[in-house]
Every structure is written in C-alpha cells, then in structure tokens.
Design brief:
Radius of gyration: 15 Å
Mean pLDDT: 93
Strand content: under 5%
Low-confidence stretches: none
Distance between the termini: 25 Å
Order of helices and strands: HHHHHH
Number of strands: 0
Largest sheet: none
Structural class: mainly alpha
C-alpha cells in the first residue's frame, strides 16, 4: 500500500520535472497554473515521496505528502473539479500504509485499547 502511494506521487514528480507530458501541461493550464510552476510542484512530489519511501524518514515524508495532496485537493476544489476525490484517497492510503508498516505510529495512535 505504501509503495503504491509513494510510487504514484514519485512518478507524478518525474512527469512534472522531466517528462512534462502534454496531458500534464493541459491539466496545469485548466487549473490556472503556468508552466513555470511545474518544477516546483515536481520537486515537492519527488522529495516528499522519496522521504516517504525511506523507512527512517517515512513519517516526515507522509507529512510532506499530505501537504502536497492537500494542495491538489484545494486546486480541484477551486474550479469545482469532481476528481478531487483522487488526492483524498491517496492521502488516506499514505497514512494507512504508514500505520500498517510503522510500529511507532501504531503505538502513538492505537485503534483499540
């Protein structure tokens, strides 16, 4: 579960920084962003997902990915785009995956007594 969420955000960052597909450029224009914002968004995706996938920095990565995905939710809400559920679901997957793989997080937030 963690790998799926981390891989999705990491590939998104690669697309934004290196590939710059036409679909991505169209989406950025639709959301009102200029092409010059791509490297910043891509860098945020790459750094946060890489930190998330490294066990020692996974919690920091999850926090940063939550911010990244929160920005995506706000962007979708701003133009009434119904696909805003996608970054919400990925945010839940990020934390669920981390909860399942990190004993420290389970100790901090126990689901049962």
């Amino acid at each position: 579960m963690s790998w799926a969420a981390g891989f999705f955000v990491f590939t998104s960052g690669i697309n934004a920084t290196l590939i710059r597909s036409s679909d991505l450029l169209e989406s950025f224009a639709k959301f009102g962003y200029t092409e010059s914002a791509l490297p910043v968004v891509g860098f945020a995706a790459l750094i946060s997902s890489a930190l998330y996938l490294i066990p020692r920095t996974a919690i920091l990565g999850a926090i940063l990915m939550t911010g990244y995905l929160g920005g995506a939710v706000a962007t979708h809400l701003r133009i009434d785009d119904p696909t805003l559920v996608v970054p919400i679901v990925f945010g839940v997957i990020v934390w669920a995956g981390l909860y399942l793989r990190d004993e420290r997080l389970r100790a901090l937030i126990p689901l049962r007594q």
